[in-house]
Amino acid sequence: MIPLAAVTRRFPARPQLSGAQSGALMAMGAMSSVQLGLALSVPLFAQLGAVGTAGLRLAWAGVLLLVMVRPRPRDFERRDLLACGLLGLVTAGMVMLFMLSAARIPLGTASALEFLGPLSISLLRPGGGRKHWAALAAVGVVLLTEPWRGGIDPAGLGFALGAAACWAGYILLTQRVGDQVTGLKGLAISLPVAGVVAGLVAAPSELARATWPLLLVMLGLAALSTVLPFSLEFLALRRLNAGAFGTLMSLEPAIALLMGVLVLGQIPGPAPAAGVVLVVIAGAGATRSGGREATAAAEAEEAEEAEPEVRVPALCA
């Protein structure tokens, strides 16, 4: 019997997505979930109003995240808690201001104006190679939403621009919190803050009309259109730089158009169809060059999810 050399064999590894690719898939899932939830929320505006619907959605989302994640104070440093609180305020502002804008100007116009927030991040951050993707996305968004077809109410315009500023702050703060706090603990602090703020704004006039069946419906919409997409965005911003993420989010008006076709029966014209093509091209270009270096929080999370290497025992003859 001659002992054979120990043979160690690793089973073929599963194909791994790059950071930019996985981040792009998460962002796409987040945008699809948001737009589907928005389409399903439209019938509720007549009962709760736009502000009341947004307030209940954020309040339920905050409760769900607290129950699911159960963050503990010792998991955070003081500066992290402050960043989470600011993120909650910005999130509430983004959602509430957009709803107020959409109640006064056409939804497509409001969406195009709100997109100025992430687009400005793409244009202002260093790295000129990404600017042509942002410019292409901007042209696509204009064609897609056709803002020239609707009148601009001054208050609606102001609310939309306020939502754009909040969206830009949301991207930067989400990336900051996600880089420093593992898992979804940061989101489990920021969303309850957003829920409290939105609830305080909506409570005096809107929430009194809520019924128990309506509250249960809003619970489901909170999971679909807030908890799931915000969680995916939170994780995506660990894998994409803010500029690439901002450009990739130009796909959201295209997804909104698709949901309008599938859910609301809204058929796009030639200009919106051309806009879809342009933003898809811009999103693909931004994704290809938008990966981030791994952060400490991301590395810790990936280490927990890593599977142990499988080895075959040594053979003897």
What key phrases describe this protein's structure?
single chain, disordered N terminus, 317 residues, mainly alpha
Number of strand segments? 0
Average pLDDT taken over every residue: 74
> What structural class results from the helix and strand content?
mainly alpha
Helix content: over 70%
Number of helices: 13
Q: What would you report as the Rg, rounded to the nearest angstrom?
A: 22 Å
Please summarize the sheet with the most strands.
none
Proportion of residues in β-strands: under 5%
Secondary-structure element series: HHHHHHHHHHHHH
Based on Cα principal axes, name the global outline: globular
Distance N terminus to C terminus? 5 Å
Low-confidence segments, given as residue ranges, are 1-14, 294-298, 301-317
List the helices and strands and how they pair.
Blueprint: H1 19-41, H2 45-69, H3 78-102, H4 107-114, H5 116-124, H6 131-145, H7 154-180, H8 185-202, H9 212-236, H10 242-248, H11 251-264, H12 270-288, H13 296-305
Helix pairs in contact: 1-9, 1-11, 2-3, 2-8, 2-9, 3-7, 3-8, 4-6, 4-7, 5-7, 5-10, 6-11, 6-12, 10-12, 11-12
Describe the protein in words.
By secondary structure, the protein is mostly helical. The protein has 13 helices and no strands. Mean pLDDT is 74; it is low at 1-14, 294-298 and 301-317. Helix content is 71%, strand content 0%.
